[in-house]
Write a structure and sequence with these properties.
alpha+beta, 60s Ribosomal Protein L30, Chain: A, 2 domains, globular, CofE-like fold, three-stranded antiparallel beta sheet, five-stranded mixed beta sheet
Length: 253
């Protein structure tokens, strides 16, 4: 974070993935298709949906039997009872229900709409994609696979799009992280005018995930991965969970 230079964001196209595919190999092959090769210090931001597909985290709503509570809540939020049942199963607690909005805290601790359960870009009309069970583990497996194939030390971020309470529009955020510290602290450092910083903590992994969203497609673009090259980061180990604000520090809940 201390060095400023040119940062390149390169879109990587992958074929439609299925359960059991080797994501690391597909990513390495895609980099080669661009006429380049994986380099030390590369950062790969991977949309969680392809990770979830590979890990078998796609289910059919036709197989879901909703509870009475799910059916009752579904009427209020105007969603299908089966979808609400899946959201509840993926949630640790309900945070907010207002209109059609159902905000929950996932098993991982993420606070987001519908526990991250997504109907878009999912094969099958009645299928939904769930978040990976362990996003950090997913990121580490991809990083390890890339190292075995190339011998290069890289960082991997598994990302998802989240809304924000006081801003319109969604942005990409980091769910899982491997190979970099997701936070950078300016505490104790001095600014241009000599003021010693007291509180500034930068969510580096979220910044990288959001930057990658400039090339990662939301619809039919077929770009589920971005390669970020030229960004200098700390390779200290960290976790996507480091980005979750503890509830006792959350002044909005």
């Amino acid at each position: 974070m201390e060095k400023v230079g040119v940062v390149n964001i390169i879109p990587l196209r992958l074929p439609l993935v299925k359960e059991g595919d080797d994501l690391a190999k597909l990513i390495v092959d895609s980099v080669r298709d661009t006429g380049s090769r994986v380099e030390n210090g590369d950062v790969f931001v991977v949309a969680h949906k392809i990770v979830s597909r590979v890990e078998g985290r796609v289910i059919s709503l036709n197989d879901i039997k909703p509870s009475f509570f799910a059916a009752t809540l579904a009427e209020y939020v105007e969603k299908s009872p089966e979808l609400v049942e899946v959201i509840l199963r993926e949630s640790r607690k309900i945070v907010k229900v207002k209109g059609r909005h159902l905000i929950t805290e996932t098993r991982h601790g993420f606070v987001c709409a519908n526990a991250g359960v997504d109907l878009s870009n999912t094969p099958g009309e009645d299928s939904v994609t769930l978040l990976p069970l362990d996003p950090d583990g997913s990121a580490e497996r991809i990083r390890g696979g890339i190292f075995r194939l190339t011998g290069r030390k890289v960082a991997v971020i598994v990302s998802d799009t989240h809304g924000r309470p006081f801003r319109c529009g969604v942005v990409n955020v980091a769910l899982g992280v491997a190979g970099l510290n997701p936070l950078f602290s300016y505490v104790g450092k001095r600014d241009l005018f000599g003021y010693r910083m007291q509180h500034t903590l930068v969510a580096v992994a979220d910044l990288l995930a959001s930057a990658a969203a400039l090339v990662i497609g939301q619809c039919s673009e077929g770009v589920p991965v971005a390669l970020i090259r030229g960004f200098v980061f700390s390779d200290e180990e960290g976790s996507g969970k480091d980005l979750i604000r503890p509830e006792e520090q959350d002044i909005f809940r």
